[in-house]
Amino acid sequence: EDQVTQSPEALRLQEGESSSLNCSYTVSGLRGLFWYRQDPGKGPEFLFTLYSAGEEKEKERLKATLTKKESFLHITAPKPEDSATYLCAVEGMNTGFQKLVFGTGTRLLVSP
Amino acid sequence: DAGITQSPRHKVTETGTPVTLRCHQTENHRYMYWYRQDPGHGLRLIHYSYGVKDTDKGEVSDGYSVSRSKTEDFLLTLESATSSQTSVYFCAISGLGNTEAFFGQGTRLTVV
């Protein structure tokens, strides 16, 4: 059974204080790993897809990396508007085509 | 929001009553999904559709049924609502070959 575990559950940062969020996964054959951002009362917003170990993707202050067991979402010099819940999901060979298994998310709060 | 509209956005219903949630897309995407989101569980797949009249079960399908008679509409029905079905329901869409899913704004359902 494919599983995704995210840590920490919650993270509080000062503006400008860089940090990383972790997504550990177990999957029998990874098709893709996905990062989403979710603001309160809204649906998840797609950020990145990573397909193979060693791959990295960047968007503004966010950088996602992937190994064979985990993914990190690095946040560099965060701003208060980066406050949100960040979700990680995997698509595995056993789960079935285009079906995602999600973690429970990391709630990030960035204080001015 | 990638042309996805969920209706209603909020609903309160009584135990034992039938409830239908609607998802409408304007993107002409092939794949449509229904997820539920609960504290401590993350997003869990209920049902999905890979084309008109083609649907399949997800992880938590008991008590739910779906229908897709047109490309743009995907309906989720709770035949007889129970309190355990109180949740936030999200519809998502994705295109063929693109696993990144785009989500609607969600429907908050309360069963009393």
Describe this structure in words.
The complex is a heterodimer of chains A (112) and B (112). With 112 residues, chain A is mainly β. Chain A is 0% helix and 58% strand. In chain A, the strands form 2 sheets. In chain A, strands 2, 4, 5, 9, 10 and 11 form a 6-stranded mixed sheet that branches. The termini of chain A are far apart. Chain B is mainly beta and 112 residues long. In chain B, the strands form 2 sheets. In chain B, strands 2, 4, 5, 6, 9, 10 and 11 form a 7-stranded mixed sheet that branches. In chain B, strands 1-3-8-7 form a 4-stranded antiparallel sheet, with no helix packed on it. Helices cover 0% and strands 58% of the residues of chain B. In chain B, strand 4 and strand 5 form a beta hairpin. Chain B contains no helices and 11 strands. Classes of the chains: A mainly beta (112), B mainly beta (112). Chains A and B meet through strand 4, strand 5 and strand 9 of A and strand 5, strand 9 and strand 10 of B.
